[in-house]
Write a structure and sequence with these properties.
This protein is α/β, with parallel strands linked by helices. The protein has one domain: P-loop containing nucleotide triphosphate hydrolases (Rossmann fold, 3-Layer(aba) Sandwich). The chain has a five-stranded parallel sheet. It has a three-stranded antiparallel sheet with strand order 3-4-5, covered by helices on one side. A hairpin with a 3-residue loop joins strand 3 and strand 4. Helix 1 packs across helix 10. The longest helix is centred in the last third of the chain and has 17 residues. The protein is globular. The protein starts with a strand and ends with a helix. Bound molecules: cytidine-5'-monophosphate. The site of cytidine-5'-monophosphate has 14 residues, from helix 2, helix 5 and helix 9.
Length: about 220
C-alpha cells in the first residue's frame, strides 16, 4: 500500500513549519522539514570554511553528512552527532542555505535523503519543492503564502522569542533576496504545484490555517 504524503510548500515565514508540525501531530504522521536539511548543510559548509563557489566540496559534504531528526514540540537536529538545533534558525544560515540550495548537484544528492522520510503511516513534508519535485505524486498538496512584510514580522518575532538579536529592516531585505533566489533558480524553483490547494495566511490565525489544511485532507 502506498504511504500517503501531504506536501506543504511556500516561501520563508509563510507558516509552513508551525502548520506542518501541528498537522503531522494531529494525523500521527512523520514530519520532514526539508529546509532544515539545507540549513544543516549550510552549517556543515560554514564549519569547514568551504567556499560557496566550491561545488565539488559542498556536494561531498552533502553526501557524507549524517543527519538525525527528533520532532517533539521543537525540532532537534543532530549533524554528525552534534546538536545544531539552536544554530538552524539564524538568517545567516538561511541565506547560505538558499545559496547552496541553488546548486543542482546538491539538490540531487539530497533528494533520496528526503524521500527516505516517506514511512508509515504517512508523511507531512514541508519545503519549496515538495509537491513539484520530491513528492510529485503526493495525493495532498498545499501551498502557503503571505506578503513579504508579514512574513518578515513573523520571522522577527520568532527570533526575538528565542532570545536572538534581530533587525526587522534587515530581515525584510533578507526575505526578499531569498524569495527572489529561490523563485528564479534553474532547478526546483519555488512555485506552486498546479494541483496544490492555495492558502494566503496573511490574515489568518495559525489555528485557522491548521483547520483548513485538515479539512482539505478530509
Ligand atoms: O524553509 P527554510 O527557510 O528553512 O529553508 C531555507 C532555505 O533552504 C530556503 O531559502 C531554500 O533556499 C532552501 N530550501 C530549498 N528547498 C526546500 C527547502 C528549503 O531550496 N525544499
Amino acid at each position: 500500500m502506498s504511504i500517503p504524503v501531504l506536501t506543504i510548500d511556500g516561501p520563508s515565514g509563510a507558516g509552513k513549519g508551525t502548520v506542518s508540525r501541528a498537522v503531522a501531530k494531529k494525523l500521527g504522521w512523520n514530519y520532514l522539514d526539508s529546509g532544515a536539511i539545507y540549513r544543516a548543510l549550510a552549517i556543515a559548509v560554514s564549519n569547514q570554511r568551504t567556499s560557496l563557489d566550491d561545488v565539488i566540496e559542498i556536494t561531498n559534504i552533502a553526501k557524507q553528512m549524517q543527519l538525525a531528526f527528533e520532532c517533539n514540540e521543537e525540532l532537534t537536529v543532530l549533524l554528525d552527532g552534534e546538536d545544531i538545533s539552536s544554530h538552524l534558525i539564524s538568517e545567516k544560515t538561511g541565506s547560505v542555505a538558499s545559496k547552496i540550495a541553488a546548486l543542482p548537484e546538491v539538490r540531487k544528492v539530497l533528494l533520496q535523503k528526503q524521500r527516505d522520510f516517506q514511512q508509515q503511516p504517512g508523511l507531512v513534508a514541508d519545503g519549496r519543492d515538495m509537491g513539484t519535485v520530491v513528492f510529485l505524486d503526493a495525493p495532498y498538496k498545499v501551498f502557503l503564502s503571505a506578503g513579504a512584510v508579514t512574513r518578515a514580522k513573523r520571522r522577527y518575532k520568532q527570533l526575538i522569542e528565542k532570545g536572538i538579536d534581530a533587525n526587522l529592516t534587515r530581515i525584510i531585505q533578507d526575505i526578499e533576496e531569498r524569495d527572489q533566489r529561490d523563485s528564479e533558480r534553474s532547478v526546483a524553483p519555488l512555485k506552486m504545484a498546479t494541483d496544490a490547494h492555495y492558502i494566503d495566511t496573511s490574515e489568518k490565525s495559525i489555528a485557522a490555517v491548521i483547520a483548513e489544511v485538515l479539512d482539505f485532507i478530509d
